[in-house]
Predict the structure.
Amino acid sequence: METTSRPEHRSRPGRWGSFEELPTGRTLVMGVLNVTPDSFSDGGQYAGHEAAITHGLRLTAEGADLVDVGGESTRPGSERITAAEEQRRILPVVEALAAAGAVLSVDTLHAATAAAALDAGAHLVNDVSGLAVTPEMVELVAERQAPYVLTHTRGTPETMDGLAVYDDVVDDVLAELESLRDRFVAAGLAPERIVLDPGLGFAKRGAQNWELLRALPRFIATGHRVLVGASRKRFLGTLLEQDGTARPATGRDAATAAISALSAHAGAWAVRVHDVRPSADAVAAAHAWRGTEPALLHPGAGGTARTAGGGDR
Ligand code: PMM
């Protein structure tokens, strides 16, 4: 006998049409689409427009609620590209996937690219600038009232590895995120449009990533939606190392799915992953384990601490 409810929305992932229409009763799965020749985790596979569009559609078919389109690698030590080159890479992909009904975020450090992608049909801006966010980006998202993923990092991809020094990584990351959040709110962005992301792997050393994951309920208690981006990251390669050799990126998907399940159990808004199906399944299992669909996992998220009925989810 079927004992768990199967929400209607599971039948049409990736076709929600807008940020507002995304489901609120469960953790969402954001599929990663790197239109780059040099990403650490799927390096160069989807650099051509056709291949990228096909992969984006595959991500939605496999259960992605959102697709995160990026044209510039932000791995430690990666080289910066111009906003013009970034737009050449991603805009045709954004247009095609938006036309297919996918909810899209644009993963960029450049306000000009964020603006162009929003014009081309993207719904959210996913910015991993952290403390280096530009005034132009603050102004843009406030003016457009664009949903904005505020990701913690320090420095730039060239310098961030040397900046992973904290008194208390959880306290410090939360404080830095909240002060950045205040800048956006002061500029006029509605707090419920701000998603917080602890920025795993961004100015974080191995163990610090686990401390942040352990503290996920504290991030969720801010009242903001929280995004977790652990997929295929180096700290998972270290966890799974054999004979002193880190497990390569594509061998990290089972550990990624485990983190997706635990993030869902904790009440994260979304997980950002490369291999969508295992994480979509993991999230479904986590919610089934909880027994009921939470009444509203993200009640208009924004700035005030939520008193979650069941305590730590
Ligand atoms: N990680 C990467 C890129 N963009 N965006 C957010 N919000 N959070 C993350 O953890 C994150 C991100 C790392 O690069 P990848 O696209 O090659 O995984």
User: Anything to note?
Assistant: The chain has one domain: 26-301. The longest strand covers residues 28-34.
